[in-house]
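Re: the 132-residue chain
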Amino acid sequence: MSFIALATLVVRDYDEAIDFYTRALGFELVEDTDRGGGTRWVVVRPGGAEGAGTGLLLARAKNTEQAASVGAQTGGRVGFFLHTGDFAADHARMTAAGVRFLEEPRQEAYGTVAVFEDLYGNRWDLLQPAGD
């Protein structure tokens, strides 16, 4: 096995999720295929990954149990880690796009980091690793 290709993120609505991840976070829409019955296969991936890296499968909640997990898929912990080569530029772009950061950027031994929430409340780290 070489790498994890996709991770599923349960969302309320396909189109609002596509808008947030592509507009606010700068991800690329890799695939949006109608699978019938109101379901779609929707994959987004960080921009510039050029086919590399893990994509997110945006899966619309199908029932109340799945809907209850939207925004809480990692129990309130940071569950996603978005690496960048230019923290300042990406932080400024994301802030201008309305992304809600929960803290000011901070320096850690491993790099520059700030926690933000996606449109559902899932927590992410925006991280520029030390040395990048």
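The first strand starts at residue 6 and ends at 11.
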